[in-house]
Write a structure and sequence with these properties.
The chain is built from three helices and no strands. It is mostly helical and 112 residues long. It starts with a helix and ends in a 39-residue tail after the last helix.
Length: 112
C-alpha cells in the first residue's frame, strides 16, 4: 500500500469516535477491509487499485455495508421500502399509456 497504515487506522478510529459522540450511524469501512484482508496489512492492497481508490472487491464491500446501514438506521430509505418510480409494465394501458408513464414520487411516504 502507498498510504501509511497507522495513520489510516487512526483516522478510521477517530471517525468512529466522532460518530459515536455525535450519535450518528457510521459505516466502518476500515474494520470491514481489515477483516476482508485477513488482518494482514499487505493484503489490504487487494481491495484497492492504487493504495487509496477502491477496486471492484472494495466497492462490493462498501456497497454491502451501506445497504446494511440504511436498512438498520433508515429502513424507510432502504430499496425494499421504496416504490417504483414508474408503473410496472403490466399496469400500462396500451390504449392510453401516458397517465401510467408519469413519474411518481417514491419518497412521499417519508416524513420530513
Amino acid at each position: 500500500m502507498d498510504r501509511d497504515f497507522a495513520v489510516t487506522r487512526a483516522y478510521a478510529e477517530a471517525a468512529r469516535d466522532v460518530a459515536r459522540e455525535e450519535g450518528v450511524p457510521v459505516v466502518d469501512v476500515w474494520t470491514a477491509f481489515w477483516e476482508a484482508a485477513g488482518r494482514d496489512e499487505a493484503r489490504l492492497g487487494a481491495l484497492l487499485v492504487d493504495g487509496l481508490h477502491l477496486n471492484a472487491k472494495g466497492y462490493e464491500i462498501v456497497f454491502g455495508l451501506l445497504v446494511d446501514a440504511i436498512k438498520a438506521h433508515f429502513p424507510e430509505l432502504h430499496y425494499e421500502a421504496l416504490g417504483t418510480v414508474f408503473s410496472p409494465w403490466d399496469d400500462i394501458d396500451p390504449d392510453d399509456p401516458l397517465p401510467s408513464l408519469q413519474k411518481r414520487d417514491i419518497f412521499k411516504h417519508i416524513s420530513s
